[in-house]
Design brief:
heterodimer; A: alpha+beta; Ubiquitin-like (UB roll); 2 domains; B: alpha+beta; Aldehyde Oxidoreductase, domain 4; 3 domains; five-stranded mixed beta sheet; 30 strands
């Protein structure tokens, strides 16, 4: 039987009727049509569906929809808005060529942002660890790690 | 008077990706993001058997389920497809040949109903003996997988052997092999095995198909070759190509050779033919993507080499056996390309290479970055090291001694080689890891090199359109797989047309509107499509300058363009493209430039020597933990001769990505099966791909030996970046601890037991 859940996504309130065995990823992509969050494996192994749930990065394919009732979610669409400046992580990903096919990119950006929110000056090892749940098959991660370092620098300059 | 025009070339500049903004903001649209009015969802019932006769299929219960709109089996779509050899039914007909083969499918109003419905389909099988090992499949008493092999249509270069499991075989011979071995001071031979691996694209496979009221088929699918897909479908279904339209979704989430040929398209079309014009979407799960799309060939490679005391290799004989699984797919040409690099990038006067593409009851194997070379290179690059050891020579020096150079004769095809940057690759890669440095125990260095052909001959056509507002559209069927093709084509057109990159957009392929292109594969796009768009840009520029010459009142030869403006070469007023077009055609018009590239080489597809060759050398320093067998990569240098780097960052990205993908299949990636042919690790949990934690220090090195026919001298890069990885690491393992492993992957367990055996333990 369908359940009514309320959730806040990118600052907007939504009400969704859903079977309780559907996931947050299903709700985001299919009901709310926020397709920036990608479906790669449906089992929490690739990280393409990473979103922020109450500020923490989670695999949205592992969260059942009723669990997010009343909770706050940020997806890649909430990280930047058209005609407004990008987040420093996004800027750095563009500048450092940290993107190839782009399928892992939204999840990578979310994981990187979450890292820099909790640890503004991460070491290379800390960056690698924070991204270990996000698989990328194109880049070999080299330029992604460089981009996260550059984003940390940008944010540091922004603070000073 | 001459005005100084600042004209800094865009070639060789690392422009940012033209698609970066859409991708980094999550607004880039991929296949599964597409919804349509009336969309139905398909699910596939797959074979649980590796080899069995289908005795009976009963779909009545599935059809009766509310919400189900169509059910199909093989008999509803009696077509066989395949680029090289048409052996693969859209859904199994009469028998199944691998675990995961489509047997029936359902289209329903939602995915859950479709899922429920396929469980209601009853199938009765009669087991047949199955064969999984490539050498077993060649035995005289092996079960025959394709009894009708003699009836299949195939391209001229593919020669199946009816009555056997040999789907294709190739042989190249030059010089006098026996004489060569007789002259050699040292002859060694060995056998190397290569484990099957998977592409691991993060985007799973999908397709949408629709059949309109006229029976015309439209397919939306992330396929690396829309023009080829249309032809493959037309050949399979025996309908004209214009009855089929292939549209690429705006973006593809990784391909690596997997998203080509006929995959989900086949079942999707079979369903769409029965849904009364409603579109049908099928998206595969991660498990299906592993089990039932494509793998890299497992292989057994035997190589024999003979050399003089000074290290000069005088003879090489290779026999390569590729396990192509249940259907040919691109297996025959994968085997062919493996053969084309079957003796390595060396000037060897006496060679013989035999390649066998062999059917088994494994899932279908086909193209995966490297196209047959990861297997053949694994063998000969390991053996060259063993040869060096036996002769007491340095592995780098034996390679430099035999390496192909400008003017060498291709040992396989006999064509004269030019644009050969191999020695520079070897020297630079070795230097980057400080090759000759003395190293502490358990540390070692390894090197491997290779050259790779591209499929030849093959063609590309493009248009460059200048709109009335002066903006430029590059109309092409090249697919943005992630490699950066739209950025590269933008740079080439901007340079040739004298436009600024931000005026240019590159189309998404749609076979109704974008012209023919053979494929976005084989590292062919920068070269072939690059030449086509360059010619189209030149044509558009010529037309633009003819218009401008009327406005300026001087001949077109005295005008030029840069940064979106026309100007007289001797100085004077500039006019924007828009001003030129609207001054002449006040009510508006487009300028359409045309360009095509087709190499001037005779022969049918895949039959000719390559129009260009990529060269590469990788050098690696590793540390081995003798207690655990774990290999740690300390430094990895990869040098690639790309002809000319249009965009160095894009080249680096290809190198870094290819190297880590290669490290995966060298150290831990391996598709595992049980004894019934069931895949045991069809997910990212059990099939281990490298994560950010596994990223070593990679040093990408770009070498430029310009190609006379390449756009601005460019060749290609993507495929070869993975090829030398396995032998380079295995050679470093030998250098570090004196252990030679000949079967991939080099898991810690395997290394540990090899060390133990070397020490004389059990």
């Amino acid at each position: 039987m369908k359940q009514r859940i309320k959730l806040f996504v990118n600052g907007e309130a939504y009400e969704v009727y859903t079977e309780p065995n559907r996931t947050l990823l299903d709700v985001l992509r299919e009901d709310l049509e926020l397709t920036g969050t990608k479906r790669g494996c449906d089992s929490g192994e690739c990280g393409a569906c990473t979103v922020l749930l109450n500020g923490k990065p989670v695999n949205s394919c592992l969260i059942l929809a009723p669990e997010v009732d009343g909770q706050s979610v940020v997806t890649i669409e909430g990280i930047s808005k058209p005609n407004l400046p990008l987040h420093p992580v996004q800027e750095a990903f563009i500048e450092k060529w940290a993107i190839q096919c782009g399928f892992c990119t939204p999840g990578m950006v979310i994981s990187a942002k979450a890292l820099l929110d909790r640890n503004p000056e991460p070491s290379e090892e800390e960056i690698k660890l924070a991204l270990a749940g996000n698989l990328c098959r194109c880049t070999g991660y080299v330029k992604i790690v460089e981009a996260v370092k550059a984003a940390a620098e940008k944010m540091k300059e922004g603070r000073s | 008077m001459t005005v100084q025009i600042s004209r800094e070339s865009l070639i060789g500049k690392s422009l940012t990706r033209v698609d970066a903004l859409e991708k980094v903001t999550g607004r880039a649209v991929y296949g599964d993001d597409i919804k349509m009015t009336g969309l139905l969802y398909g699910k596939i019932l797959r074979s649980p058997k590796a080899h069995a006769k289908i005795k009976r299929i009963d779909v009545s219960k599935a059809l009766a389920l509310e919400g189900v709109k169509a059910v199909v089996t093989g008999k509803d779509a009696p077509f066989r497809g395949g680029e090289a050899l048409r052996d693969q039914p859209f859904l199994a007909i009469d028998k199944v040949r691998f675990v995961g083969e489509p047997v029936a499918a359902v289209a329903a109003v939602d995915e859950r109903i479709a899922e429920e419905a396929i469980k209601l389909i009853e199938v009765e099988y009669e087991d047949l003996p199955a064969v999984f090992d490539v050498m077993d499949a060649l035995k005289p008493d092996a079960p025959i997988i394709h009894e009708e092999l003699h009836t299949y249509e195939h391209i001229p270069i593919v020669q199946p052997v009816p009555g056997t499991n040999i789907c294709a075989k190739f042989e190249f011979e030059r010089g006098d092999l026996e004489k060569g071995f007789a002259e050699a001071d040292v002859v060694i031979e060995d056998t190397f095995t290569f484990a099957p691996s998977h592409h691991g694209q993060i985007e799973p496979f999908m397709a949408i198909a629709q059949v309109d009221y006229n029976g015309r088929i439209t397919v939306w699918v992330p396929n690396d070759a829309p023009s080829r897909l249309r032809k493959d479908l037309s050949d399979a279904m025996k309908i004209p190509q214009d009855r089929i339209r292939v549209i690429s979704p705006p973006y593809m989430g990784g391909g690596f050779g997997g998203k080509g040929g006929l995959k989900v398209e086949m079942v999707c079309i079979a369903l769409a033919m029965k849904t009364e014009c409603r579109p049908v979407k099928i998206r595969l799960t991660r498990e299906e993507t592993f089990e039932a799309t494509l793998t890299r060939h497992g292989a057994v490679c035997w190589v024999k080499m003979g050399a003089k005391k000074d290290g000069r290799i005088v003879a090489c004989h290779s026999k390569l056996y590729y396990n192509t699984g249940a259907y040919a797919e691109k297996g025959p040409t994968v085997t062919l390309h493996g053969c084309e690099s079957g003796v390595g990038p060396y000037d060897i006067p006496n060679i013989k290479v035999e390649g066998y593409c062999v059917y088994t009851n494994r899932p279908v194997a086909g193209a995966l970055r490297g196209y047959g070379l990861p297997q053949s290179s694994w063998a000969h690059e390991s053996l060259v090291d063993m040869l060096a050891h036996k002769l007491g020579l340095d592995p780098l020096e034996i390679r430099l001694k035999n390496a192909l150079v400008e003017g060498s004769i291709n040992p396989i095809r006999g064509d004269e080689l030019f644009s050969v940057g191999l020695k520079e690759c070897l020297e630079k890669a070795a230097k980057a890891i400080d090759w000759y440095k003395k190293r502490p125990p358990n540390r070692g260095v390894g090197i491997a090199c290779e050259y790779k052909a591209t499929k030849t001959p093959s063609g590309s056509t493009a248009f460059v359109r200048i709109e009335q507002d002066g903006s430029v559209e590059v109309v092409t069927s090249s697919v943005e797989i992630g490699q950066g093709v739209r950025t590269i084509l933008t740079q080439i057109v901007a340079e040739e047309l004298g436009a600024s990159p931000n005026m240019i957009k590159v189309t998404v392929p749609d076979t109704d509107y974008t012209p023919f292109d053979a494929s976005t594969t084989a590292s062919r796009t920068t070269f072939h499509m690059g030449n086509a768009v360059r010619e189209a840009a030149r044509d558009a520029k010529k037309q633009l300058l003819e218009l401008a010459s009327k406005l300026y009142g001087i001949s077109p030869e005295r005008l030029d363009t840069w940064d979106g403006k026309v100007f007289p070469k001797e100085g004077g007023k500039e006019m924007s493209f828009r001003e030129v077009i609207t001054s002449h055609y006040r009510a508006g018009l487009s300028i359409l430039g045309r360009g095509s590239y087709y190499p001037n080489i005779p022969g049918t597809l895949f039959s000719a020597h390559s129009v260009f060759y990529m060269y590469a050398a990788h050098a690696v320093e590793i540390e081995v933990d003798p207690e655990t067998g774990v290999i740690t990569i300390l430094k990895y240098a990869a040098a690639h001769d790309v002809g000319r780097a249009i965009n160095p960052k894009a080249c680096e990205g290809q190198i870094e990505g290819g190297v880590l993908q290669g490290i995966g299949s060298t150290l831990y990636e391996e598709i595992l099966f049980d004894d019934k042919g069931v895949m045991l690790n069809p997910n990212f949990r059990d099939y281990k791909m490298p994560t950010s934690m596994d990223m070593p220090k990679v040093i990408p090195i770009i070498v430029e030996a310009p190609h006379k026919e390449g756009p601005f001298g460019a060749k290609g890069i993507g495929e070869i970046t993975l090829v030398p990885v396995s032998p380079a690491i295995a050679n470093a393992l030998f250098n570090a601890i004196g252990v030679r492993i000949k079967d991939l992957p080099l898991t810690a367990e395997k290394v540990y037991f090899a060390i133990k055996k070397q020490k004389g333990g059990n």
